[in-house]
Amino acid sequence: MTVEDPEPAHRDRAHRSALAVTLWLLVPLLVVAAYVAQILESFSAVGCEGDCDLALAFGARAVFPWAVAASVIAAIVAAFMLRHRRKPAYWAPLLGVVLVLVSAITTSAVFQAGLAPMYARNDRIANGEVPAETTPPLPDPVGGWEASVDGATFLSFSPDGTVTGSDGCNDLSGRWSQDSAGRIELETLLPQTENTCDGVDAWLGRGRSADIIDGYMYVNGAAGSPIGGLQPGRQSRD
Fold first, then answer.
1. 1-9: long-range contacts at Cβ-Cβ below 8 A with a sequence spacing of 24 or more?
2. Residue 94 backbone dihedrals phi, psi, to 5 degrees
3. In the chain, N or C: fewer CB atoms in 10 Å?
4. Which spans are transmembrane here (predicted)?
5. Cα atoms found within 13 Å of the Cα of residue 143, Cβ hemisphere only
6. Distance CA 129, CA 32 (A)
7. Distance of CA 98 to CAs 17, 20, 59, 204, Å?
8. Using an 8 Å Cβ cutoff, are 56 and 114 in contact?
């Protein structure tokens, strides 16, 4: 009578057990790797500027933890069922690995679908089909600006960089320049006469800069805060 050698069967069981342990350890490693990949992938949303479907993109991100939890639960349930039916133990963690991979790939695909409008816009710009967005023009001060009370207080900006006007008592003259943020510098604006006017607030002569906001010129003092304002002159409005 021939006696079968139990050694091959024992080695096979040991191999399957080791494979099952390896696959179980692989599940959390895949989850961590997918999470890190999603963090890096999220940087691609920079520049959407209203073109992306962020609800779809980040909705997929919100679903991913639930999908991972469902995958792990499914693997655990499968492990109990396989043990009860005496099936190979490594099938359960293999199922978990597959489900985690499917969850990561699916949520990544949905995330990219939410960013698809941005990619399409960038392609059109690269192909010259639509112009790239340009910086809006700076507010133009050229022309007349006057106080809303009587118009005696005013400034007139010329294209050559000179500015003239009156603070309601003395004539003003100087030069103006505009920085990249749109602020108008009036450092050289000085009185040209020495009249004395009782009851007149000559605030405009203390102006050192100005900002045009919504069509109104706010004149700033030496501290950089508004001390008064001017509206477009009658000729500028006509």
1. none
2. -65, -40
3. N
4. 18-37, 63-82, 89-111
5. 18
6. 41
7. 19, 14, 22, 74
8. yes
pLDDT in tens, 98-113: 988 898 888 888 888 8
Which tokens sit at 168?
């309601």
**pLDDT tens digits, 56-108:** 877 877 888 898 888 889 888 888 887 788 877 778 888 888 988 898 888 88
Helix (H, G, I), strand (E, B) or coil at 185: strand
- φ, ψ (nearest 5 deg) of residue 159: -60, -25
Strand order, beta sheet including 177-178: 177-178, 184-185, 209-213, 216-220, 226-232, 143-146, 153-157, 162-167, 171-175, 190-191
Decide if 10 contacts 18 (C-beta within 8 A): no
Q: Taking the model in full, what pTM does it have?
A: 0.47
The CATH class given to the 143-233 domain equals: mainly beta
Give the count of alpha carbons within 13 A of 162, CB side only. Answer: 5
The residue assigned the tokens 């409008």 is 117
Supply the DSSP string of 39-58, one letter for each residue. HHHHGGGTT-TT-S-HHHHH
Give the start-to-end residue ranges of the domains of the chain.
10-126, 143-233
